[in-house]
Amino acid sequence: MKKSIILLCxxxxxxxxxxxxxxxxxxxxxxxxxxxxxxxxxKKKSLxxxxxxxxxxxxxxxxxxxxxxxxxxxIIFGGLLxxxxxxxxxxxxxxxxxxxxxxxxxxxxxxxxxxxxxxxxNQEEWTIIFNSNWNQHGKDEYNEKDDVMRFKVTPKISExxxxxxxxxxxxxxxxxxxxxLSWEKVLVEFPFEVK
Length: 195
Description:
The protein is α+β, with helices and mostly antiparallel strands. It contains 2 helices and 10 strands, in the order ααββββββββββ. It is globular. It has helices spanning 2-24, 28-38; strands at 50-57, 60-67, 96-99, 103-105, 108-110, 113-120, 126-131, 147-153, 156-173, 176-194. A hairpin with a 2-residue loop joins strand 4 and strand 5. The chain has 2 domains: 2-38; 50-194, no CATH class. It comes from Constantimarinum furrinae. Keywords: Signal. Residues 1-19 form the signal peptide. This is DUF2911 domain-containing protein.
């Protein structure tokens, strides 16, 4: 009887070890499924991706930092963005422009530095604004008293739609260039010279 009890205990112990071993092993397909459910879901692509434009013109490094909203079948100027109202010239945070050299724009001097870039759109002319408060959300803290330069430009209208807002810094000579923004059917650009 003792022998049969010992034999029974050995059989039970062996079968428990086998069951425990099987419980610890996870088939490869299960591991794959576990990883796919615990993986971070794909992040939604931003409707207004953060981007920049920059160029060297002479000794000047000019950098524009902005978020680029899309048209998405909307009327932008005179619709989503009313005329004669200050706009931060991008989405989310205010667009900023930085230059490491003094520039001459519209016959005025823009000192080397970093500036909030704002515009006031209009059908006939746009007001371009460089503002000392470059780090703000949208135009929440915009104050005209912080403007360091204002001037007017005539917009160019295109038949083709530019889906996403785009800035360009283009070198035209060794010490001059243009800064432009285009979105929807509007192109606005102005020249500058490096001092």
